[in-house]
Structure formats: structure tokens, C-alpha cells
Design goal:
The complex is a heterodimer of chains A (114) and B (112). Chain A is an all-beta fold and 114 residues long. Chain A has strands at 4-6, 10-13, 19-25, 31-38, 42-51, 54-57, 64-70, 73-78, 87-94, 104-105, 109-113. Chain A has no helices and 11 strands. In chain A, strand 4 and strand 5 (42-51) form a beta hairpin. Chain A is globular. Chain B has strands spanning 4-5, 10-14, 19-25, 30-38, 45-51, 56-59, 62-67, 72-77, 86-94, 101-102, 106-111. In chain B, strands 2, 4, 5, 9, 10 and 11 form a 6-stranded mixed beta sheet that branches. In chain B, strands 1-3-8-7-6 form a 5-stranded antiparallel beta sheet, with no helix packed on it. Classes of the chains: A mainly beta (114), B mainly beta (112). Chains A and B meet through strand 4, strand 5, strand 9 and strand 10 of A and strand 4, strand 5 and strand 9 of B.
Chain lengths: 114, 112
Amino acid sequence: DVKVTQSSRYLVKRTGEKVFLECVQDMDHENMFWYRQDPGLGLRLIYFSYDVKMKEKGDIPEGYSVSREKKERFSLILESASTNQTSMYLCASSQEVYDNSPLHFGNGTRLTVT
Amino acid sequence: DQQVKQNSPSLSVQEGRISILNCDYTNSMFDYFLWYKKYPAEGPTFLISISSIKDKNEDGRFTVFLNKSAKHLSLHIVPSQPGDSAVYFCAARTNTGNQFYFGTGTSLTVIP
């Protein structure tokens, strides 16, 4: 069974802080993703990575960066947290496109920026 | 621009009856479609998928129907159970990209 683990379930940070959200998957998946979920807006893609050290911007990358130094680990970085980044953050992984396999999600990190 | 749309934010159904959740998409290049279920404070869990070469896929109480000409898919849950109460997201992907596109979700309440 695929396991995607996010390091924190709940985080409270202050405006201007640098925030790191960590995600680890145990299935040797090529692709990893960061989404945020907000009421009425669904899941919006922030960044994704299809290989180590490779990254692509999603729909809402502003204010975020990512790091993928190892295949199993994908980090989301909020360079200077702002209140509009208060959200549920979801990490996911998947195999290659040709496998027609689904995204597997972690349990999410509820981030509050005050 | 929302490429995957779920126009019903919420749905209530009696226990034992059928729940039908709908999803529309605009990108004709989508060829793989998925449904996810999400409980509060948890990540989405994969329910069922369908590729564009099919028009129906079943898994137990869950059936997904795909109408490519109408760019529409639906999820049927029969019979509905109180534990099915959750937010349901549909998602889609093209055969050339790694990105999954999600709808805004439909909150299903199954009334005992």
C-alpha cells in the first residue's frame, strides 16, 4: 500500500516566517505534487516534480518554492508566510503517466498563518 | 480557467438510495478520469477511475460513467450509506502530462 507521509498535521506560524512542509513517499514514485485546498476552490496545484531536482510550476506558485533532493522527499517552502497562505496543504505522488495510476495523497497539513 | 467543473456544491440523499455526483470538463485531451473522497482533516482517498477508451467502470457500490461527446462524467453510489458522507472530487489528466486537474468538490450527505 502506498504511503505518503506529511511531517505535520497542524502548524501555526507568524506572518513573515519561513515555513517548511515536508513530504515523504515510500513507493518509488517518479512524480510528486503539492496542492492546497480551500473551500469553494477545490484542489489547486502549487508545484510538481517529475524527477529528482526537477520541478514545474503549477497554477498558483507565487509565494512558494520547492525542493526535491531525493526521489522520496518533496518539500514545500513558504519563503515569507502571509495570512492568505492559511490553508490545507496536500502532498501527493504518482507513477508515470503511461501507467494510468492515480494520485496518492498524504493526510494534509493544516497551516494557519497569524 | 477551471478545466474540471463540479457545479453542485452539495447533495443530500437518503440512506439506501442512489447518489449521483456529476462532473464536466472542457479539455478534449483529457483521457484519464478519477474520483476521490475526502473526509475533513484527512487527505483525499482514491475511489475509482476510468480511461477514455471505456464508458463505464464499476467497483462494488461505485460506478463511474463517461460521456466523451458531452465531456461529462458521473459517479453513482448504490446503495448510499451514512459513511459515504464526505466531499467528492473529480479529477482528470491528459495522456501526455503529469498534472491532474481537480474540480471544486461536491459535499455528499447521506441521511440515515
